[in-house]
């Protein structure tokens, strides 16, 4: 086995067309399908945990999370469909034994749901069987099966009554049925007449079921019958109005904005409609397919048909803003590509990777910080991309022209245009002084300083699929669908060697790490070529090879296949099978690249995902690189932008000075006002003090006068008493005598 392999580290992208493709694991972690695996993404620390599917899976079809948030069920399409339950409490998502439909041949389960106590699982298979299967999943036991519909119209959702483990609901186009598990069988307890109604989603609210239709009707079912109806209507500004309808129409109704997703929670329910307005921008025209809510009901998250994830706070201050279209929504992770990624390139002096896509966007990612640094949408589809070694310029091949653009602080701006239509491959030389661009079966070589076309290389009879440069940029290698591999001298434009195998359609080519041999992949084989001779051949197990990347250390090469698998093959190429196979992508691998320091393998696919994988040895440790990597932080700013920003800074400075002057003036006014008020209060208090002092003086005088009067009265009384005593004494003395 190969001693070096790739280990998925971080992935950008969401797989669409997966039922219930977004759910909360906890307050900060969401789970969603990406590539050929499920990702548990922690939004707080930008960390991802990967849950891998089965080896022969043909893709994920549906997800379901248990009410206790401990288990994740993953439905995978294959010859015999399986549902795998993963234990999320385990660090690596421990896999339980897969659930199947028993002896019935089922190719896929379209939707699933856990029971309220998380012990049972219900799964709905696709047509033509349309079998509903109930499992006691912990014991891997099928409890009951029933055919949910006899029509060819699809079932869109199944669910349990949140208050009853034995009652469940099935809805779809012309279908709304309630089943009850009783005596070992699923028995239909009610059926509603909805043959002409296309029900897209439903949700239990208490004992009632709210169902949304493709015409914007919200039907309320109780005991299996339609009791009420709420009609949705969209205004020209994108706002949605809801009205209760007294008369219930069981026909299809008029065309309006469809209700695409429903979710009930403790305070009511949340629903989304597909936008139908000419006044909305492309971001607002996305259709919401899944709604989920965090366990504490503090955050609402949605996934859209364009593979984007958004979240909104449900705090009291923000809940009213939910009605204002998308103003309160923000990206849950990063804005992803919404279509197949066609180009991939890295540079030397910055930790950047560039991608382009059929969604007409070019994006610049930082593989160290795991963030999207720049992106711009264009009017034309982009087929190829190449980053300059400095990370300051980028080549992009569009359907109409090849454009050389500057990577500015906050924009991607065209510097030079070349009249090459539908350029499917372009590449900068290692020194950055030249670049090659492919147009059909012709290779054009330009100088980067004067943009002069110095060489036109013609030899291929079929479309050229890939080109690569030698270390000193003196040689260029190319491969094509005609089975030819040519080595060119970039000084003279002459062919130095060639190898033609007409039975093979080559897809990618590169020099070996020592630049002595040429490695190429095509059809179902890897070839090593030197001096027009094939030295070694390594056949693929299955599927055609689509991409190639050679490590700078020379220890391993990586190949991508049409099925989304990545092979790490030991180098020098082995005689026997010595490689490690992984299937992280859900579509053909279009491009591969290894970072300059040999630490990361970057891959892109038809599934619209960019995967960053660590290159590790057999012990899981990163490779030691002999290359000294110094990442620069310089950026490009045009003179006009700089002047504009300087003018803006000047305006801000003037505005700041005006604000400071205004604040100082207001402070002076307030100071004067406060001083005046203080003076008035001081005068008032002084008067009061003087008044109190005068009152005190008067009171003191009165007290002294009163004391004098009291003292005078006391003296007079004493004299009078003394006289009376003397008179009595004289009287008694006279009487005695």
Automatic annotation (TrEMBL):
Question: Where are the annotated coiled coils located?
Answer: 689-718
Pfam family name, one: Beta-prop_EML_2
Q: Which InterPro entries match?
A: Beta-prop_EML-like_2nd, CFA-57, WD40/YVTN_repeat-like_dom_sf, WD40_repeat_dom_sf, WD40_rpt
Keywords from the UniProt entry: Coiled coil, Repeat, WD repeat
Gene3D superfamilies the record matches: YVTN repeat-like/Quinoprotein amine dehydrogenase
SMART domains of this UniProt entry? Answer: WD40
**Superkingdom of the source species:** Eukaryota
The UniProt record lists the EML-like second beta-propeller domain at 342-610
Note the segments forming the WD repeats: 334-375, 457-498
Name used for this protein in its record: WD repeat domain 65
**Origin species:** Nothobranchius rachovii
Q: What would be the name of the gene that encodes this protein?
A: WDR65
């Amino acid at each position: 086995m190969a001693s070096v392999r790739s280990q998925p580290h971080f992935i950008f992208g969401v797989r669409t067309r997966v039922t219930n493709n977004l759910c909360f694991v906890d307050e900060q972690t969401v789970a969603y399908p990406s590539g050929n695996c499920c990702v548990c993404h922690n939004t707080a620390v930008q960390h991802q945990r990967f849950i891998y599917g089965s080896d022969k899976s043909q893709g994920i079809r549906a997800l379901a999370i248990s009410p206790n948030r401990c288990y994740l069920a993953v439905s995978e399409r294959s010859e015999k469909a399986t549902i795998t339950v993963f234990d999320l409490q385990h660090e690596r998502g421990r896999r339980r034994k897969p659930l199947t439909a028993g002896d019935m041949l089922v190719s896929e389960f379209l939707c699933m749901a856990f029971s309220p106590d998380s012990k049972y699982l219900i799964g709905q298979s696709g047509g033509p069987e349309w079998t509903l299967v109930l499992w006691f999943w912990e014991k891997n036991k099928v409890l009951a099966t029933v055919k949910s519909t006899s029509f060819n119209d699809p079932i869109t959702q199944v669910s349990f009554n949140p208050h009853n483990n034995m009652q469940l609901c099935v809805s779809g186009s012309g279908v709304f049925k309630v089943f009850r598990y009783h005596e070992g069988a699923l028995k239909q307890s009610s059926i509603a007449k909805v043959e002409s109604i296309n029900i897209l989603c439903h949700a239990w609210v208490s004992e009632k079921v709210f169902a949304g239709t493709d015409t914007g009707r919200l039907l309320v079912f109780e005991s299996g019958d339609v009791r009420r109806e709420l009609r949705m209507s969209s205004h020209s500004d994108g706002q949605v109005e809801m009205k209760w309808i007294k008369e219930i129409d069981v026909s299809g109704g008029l065309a309006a904005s469809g209700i695409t997703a429903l979710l009930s929670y403790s305070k009511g329910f949340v629903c989304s409609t597909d936008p139908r307005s000419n006044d909305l921008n492309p971001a607002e025209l996305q259709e919401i397919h899944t709604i989920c809510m965090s366990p504490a009901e503090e955050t609402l998250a949605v996934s859209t048909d364009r593979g984007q994830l958004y979240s909104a706070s449900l705090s009291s201050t923000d809940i009213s803003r939910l009605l204002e279209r998308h103003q309160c929504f923000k990206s849950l992770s990063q804005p992803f590509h919404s279509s197949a990624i066609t180009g991939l390139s890295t540079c030397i002096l910055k930790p950047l990777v560039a991608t382009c896509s059929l969604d007409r966007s070019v994006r610049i990612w930082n593989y160290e910080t795991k963030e999207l640094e720049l992106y711009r949408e264009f009017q034309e589809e982009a087929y190829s991309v190449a980053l300059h070694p400095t990370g300051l310029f980028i080549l992009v091949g569009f359907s109409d022209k090849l454009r050389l653009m500057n990577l500015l602080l906050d924009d991607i701006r065209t510097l030079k245009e070349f009249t090459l239509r539908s350029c499917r491959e372009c590449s900068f030389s290692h020194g950055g002084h030249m670049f090659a661009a492919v147009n059909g079966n012709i290779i054009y070589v330009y100088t980067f300083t004067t943009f002069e076309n110095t060489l036109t290389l013609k030899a291929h009879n079929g479309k050229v699929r890939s080109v690569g440069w030698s270390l000193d940029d003196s040689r260029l290698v190319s491969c094509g669908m005609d089975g030819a591999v040519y080595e060119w001298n970039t000084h003279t434009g002459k062919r130095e060697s060639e190898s033609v195998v007409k039975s093979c359609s080559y897809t990618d080519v590169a020099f070996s790490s020592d630049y002595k041999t040429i490695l190429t992949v095509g059809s179902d084989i890897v070839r090593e070529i030197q001096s027009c001779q094939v030295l070694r051949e390594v056949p693929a197990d299955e599927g055609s090879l689509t991409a190639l990347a050679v490590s700078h250390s020379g220890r391993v090469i990586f190949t991508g296949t049409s099925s989304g698998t990545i092979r790490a093959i030991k180098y020098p190429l082995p005689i026997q099978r010595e490689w490690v196979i992984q299937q992280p992508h859900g579509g053909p691998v279009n491009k591969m690249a290894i970072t300059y320091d040999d630490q990361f393998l970057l891959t892109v696919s038809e599934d619209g995902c960019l995967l960053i994988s660590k290159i590790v040895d057999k012990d899981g440790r990163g490779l030691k690189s002999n290359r000294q990597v110094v990442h620069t932080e310089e950026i490009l700013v045009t003179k006009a932008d700089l002047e504009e920003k300087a003018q803006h800074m000047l305006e801000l400075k003037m505005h700041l000075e005006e604000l400071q002057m205004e604040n100082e003036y207001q402070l002076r006014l307030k100071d004067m006002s406060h001083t005046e008020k203080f003076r008035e209060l001081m005068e008032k208090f002084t008067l009061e003090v003087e008044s109190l002092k005068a009152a005190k003086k008067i009171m003191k005088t009165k007290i002294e006068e009163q004391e004098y009067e009291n003292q005078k009265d006391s003296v007079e009384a004493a004299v009078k008493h003394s006289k009376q005593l003397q008179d009595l004494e004289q009287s008694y003395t006279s009487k005695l005598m």
